[in-house]
Amino acid sequence: MERYFDRVAKESLVMEQWKKVDELKELGVNPFGHKFDKKYMVGDILTHTPEENLIYKTAGRIMAYRGKGKAVFAHIEDRSGRIQVYLRQDALGEQVFEVVKKIGVGDIIGVEGEIFITKTGELTLRASSLELLSKNLRALPEKFHGLTDVETRYRKRYVDLIMNKDVRDTFIKRTQIISGIREILDNKGFLEVETPLMHPILGGAAARPFITHHNTLDMDLYMRIAPELYLKRLIVGGLERVYELGRNFRNEGMDTRHNPEFTMIEMYQAYADYTDMMDLAEEIITTLAKKVLGTTTVEYNGKTLVLENFKRVHMVDLIKEITGVDFWNKDMTFEEAKALAKEHHVEVAPHMNTVGHVVNQFFEEKCEETIVQPTFVYGHPVEISPLSKRNEEDPRFTDRFELFIDAREYANAFSELQDPADQRGRFEDQVEEAERGNDEATPVIDDDFVEALEYGLPPTGGMGIGVDRLIMLLTQSESIRDVLLFPQMKPTK
What we know:
Elements: H1 2-8, H2 12-26, H3 42-45, E1 56-68, E2 71-78, E3 81-88, H4 89-92, H5 94-100, E4 108-117, E5 123-134, H6 150-155, H7 157-163, H8 165-187, E6 191-192, E7 198-199, E8 211-214, E9 219-223, H9 228-236, E10 241-249, E11 261-270, H10 274-293, E12 297-300, E13 303-306, E14 311-314, H11 315-323, H12 334-343, H13 355-367, E15 375-378, E16 400-405, E17 408-415, H14 420-435, H15 447-454, E18 460-466, H16 467-474
Parallel strand pairs: 3-5, 6-10, 14-15
Antiparallel strand pairs: 1-2, 1-4, 2-3, 4-5, 7-9, 8-9, 10-11, 11-18, 12-13, 15-16, 16-17, 17-18
Helix pairs in contact: 8-10, 11-13, 12-13, 14-15
């Protein structure tokens, strides 16, 4: 306790509030109360009328406090809404009203009473009893301007949630969206499963990992960048339809779309393919838009987006449409493709040594930014799709798609590669690419996964959806930090 008071001694407002704590204790009142039997949420009370003659028992934080003498008006707020409370000495008694005189904005109280309509037409709870449940010791931000500093909002999310109703609404919608995803998949017979967060071998996506160390085993482990390889093992094992909704970790840049830890859902369905995943992705997003927003039309980043009837286009066709370059030519050499890249100012990194790499670079640099309405771009080159099944008609490409909306990727899916020999070869290619300098390529071969395929993986469609990014879209949030309760922040000095 002494160390605590040494720390806050220079904060005069906090120390002033501690004086009130002592005064409350002198009155025999515990400033940090115990259990309160809250019967009603504030939002529920607001749906009632005085004619119902009910007694309401509720609790919340005081967000406004005014009055003097023997009557006080306060507004209390909980997750569901805000209501005015009328506190009179003759209704509460002199002893309780002494407590009323020592409470204020930020304190948490429990009240009980009937409701009535004031002369100004406001529904108000007339308190017949009051309990102080927790004394606030710090001044809340000024009510007219609220908490607007972005850094403070992210670092002190608890204050952000107190002051900004829109922020609370965003995270309530986040919960609705996540539960909605689960409901859709559960109703389709998918099983929610859990796989390891720490992996002995890096794999499942192209990304740089976080590395940790297990002392007892004396071995390094990777925080998972994707659960894919474990989930496909479960399909081999006969679970047929599985999904996992949880955190992944990627040791990469931070910006408005990326946080080092983020939420994804991955799902796998036996006896399906990537076209079934297209149908499922569209159903999930359209259903959630209707559930959360009541419409499939969203205003986002200054654009009107329609979240239904998604377009489907092959990557090569889109490149041809945007740039005029035709990569359908099966006789094109890498040198010819590289020359086209130079002509169109498309960068080809040293580790990229195939036509497929150039095709993907053309798409990423020339086409992604042109996509506005929801579009499934399919037919990714084999070289950048180490876990995807080859297309039967043109094995240079895979049965894979990415879903783009307003130039952002929302989903990645494919028909899963079943052939263990082909998979082993793709892993070997990834190791070579890592040696050539691609720090996102998988540098080790997962022999156990290859062995799992030898037991027989049924034809399978698999898909991952970036949950945080989807929530950004459905809540019209500009930054991923706006939809994460506690985003990663740079340390303060």
